[in-house]
Write a structure and sequence with these properties.
The chain is built from 3 helices and 6 strands; from the N terminus they run H-E-E-E-E-E-E-H-H. The protein is an alpha+beta fold. It has a 4-stranded antiparallel β-sheet with strand order 1-2-3-4. The longest helix is centred in the last third of the chain and has 16 residues, at 91-106.
Length: 116
């Protein structure tokens, strides 16, 4: 199993206990908060229903209509309850999450968060 496959498997493993029945993972990536001394690692998972932020203390479920924006530089910042920094090795996953949301909306199949 190559590096890319191990990353995908790790993200799926971290998300699995927090998925609702029938919920499908679209993509995922790793982010960090804090400095290199006090860094905490978070797993972001984009599903067909929500954005999950999985940390050691549990999971935060956000509406799927969240867009991450176009990543640039060495680290892309995501401003939510804190600043999450995503290394450029995950930029393709950030882009894939935003593209999956656009595709869902274009097909007239908005995420559940937009159906209310």
């Amino acid at each position: 199993m190559g590096y890319q496959e191990r990353r995908v498997a790790l993200i799926a493993k971290r998300a699995a206990p927090h998925l609702e029945p029938g919920e499908q993972i679209q993509t995922g990536f790793i982010a960090q908060t804090g400095s290199w001394i006090t860094a905490r690692v978070w797993t972001f998972v984009a599903t067909d229903r929500a954005i999950l932020i999985v940390g050691r203390d549990g999971v935060q479920r956000l509406p799927r209509d969240l867009r991450f924006g176009r990543p640039t530089g060495m680290y892309h910042n995501i401003e939510l309850d804190r600043t999450y920094k995503v290394h450029r090795q995950y930029y393709s996953e950030i882009t894939a999450a935003d593209e999956a949301l656009r595709d869902m909306q274009a097909r007239g199949n908005p995420p559940e968060s937009e159906q209310r």
